[in-house]
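Q: Please design a sequence for this.
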């Protein structure tokens, strides 16, 4: 077994932190490459959003790609992102008050929550199915029960555990190789929407948005606690920083995808550490 990827944080000439990143790559459900433990189990968190958007894509086959993309997003409340959320919310015949995520931003707003697009999509599915919108986030609601089945079907295995995600919906624990496999089985409409709008999925300096721009034909979606899932060219990958440090993901992606023959731009391999003055004081790199 290959060891985990070591991502080093250097300040000046001194390395002050090390992050261990586990990774798995699959093709046709079989592990073709790994670093660390491909069976490492963690919660899928926001990386599950493209899977959670599958019922939305089925219920609204003519949905604009921007609305489908924002349902898969962990947005930063940029104007274009909020416009997509509001459009999807209107399609659900719902209001901001119907969103069951928390409020974020200044002033606080449920629309500003990075998961509001996912929640708006869930409301739209409830409207289409005639399900109650109250409590749509709870485990015993028919929507969350259907999403549990979606995870099982797409990943090809039963989640090892469930819990409550940061935005209040159900989140699912899976081994990394199952997450990687799931990303190779996403619907064409969802993958096309994500590729068409990488800027909606997160933001300009986010690893998933950057990866989709760097590798045409690929999709990517990050999750909390240092998780990244992606797929392209028939390969699915999932990476997890053992300590939950998201800053380790870009260098780890450069190292792991490089082993698979995909060379990423320098902005992945070397992440600049800056101080509050915007001065470069160090870097984050994967050990060779």
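A: Design:
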């Amino acid at each position: 077994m290959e060891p985990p990827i070591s991502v080093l944080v250097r300040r000046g000439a001194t390395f002050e932190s090390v992050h261990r990143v586990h990774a798995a790559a699959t093709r046709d459900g079989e592990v073709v490459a790994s670093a660390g433990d491909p069976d490492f189990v963690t919660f899928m968190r926001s990386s599950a959003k493209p899977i959670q958007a599958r019922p939305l894509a089925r219920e609204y086959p003519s949905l604009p790609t921007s609305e489908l993309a924002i349902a898969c997003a962990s947005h930063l409340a940029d104007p274009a992102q909020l416009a997509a959320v509001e459009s999807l919310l209107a399609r659900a015949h719902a209001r901001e008050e119907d969103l069951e995520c928390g409020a974020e931003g200044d002033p606080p707003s449920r629309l500003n929550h990075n998961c509001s697009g996912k929640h708006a999509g869930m409301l739209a599915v409830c409207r289409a199915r005639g399900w109650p919108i109250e409590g749509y986030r709870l485990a015993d609601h028919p929507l969350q029960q259907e999403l549990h089945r979606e995870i099982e079907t797409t990943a090809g295995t039963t989640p090892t555990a469930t819990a409550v995600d940061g935005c209040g919906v159900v989140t699912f624990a899976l081994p990394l190789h199952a997450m990687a496999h799931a990303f190779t089985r996403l619907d064409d409409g969802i993958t096309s929407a994500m590729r068409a709008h990488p800027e909606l999925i997160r933001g300009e300096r986010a690893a998933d948005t950057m990866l989709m721009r760097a590798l045409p034909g690929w999709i990517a979606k990050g999750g909390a606690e240092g998780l990244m899932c992606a797929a392209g060219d028939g390969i699915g990958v999932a990476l997890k920083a053992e300590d939950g440090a998201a800053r380790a993901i870009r260098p780890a992606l450069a190292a792991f995808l490089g082993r698979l023959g995909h060379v990423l731009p320098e902005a992945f391999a070397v992440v600049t550490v800056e101080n509050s003055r915007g001065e470069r004081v160090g870097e984050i790199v994967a050990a060779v």
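Q: Thanks. Anything notable?
A: The chain has one domain: 5-286. The chain has twelve helices and eleven strands.
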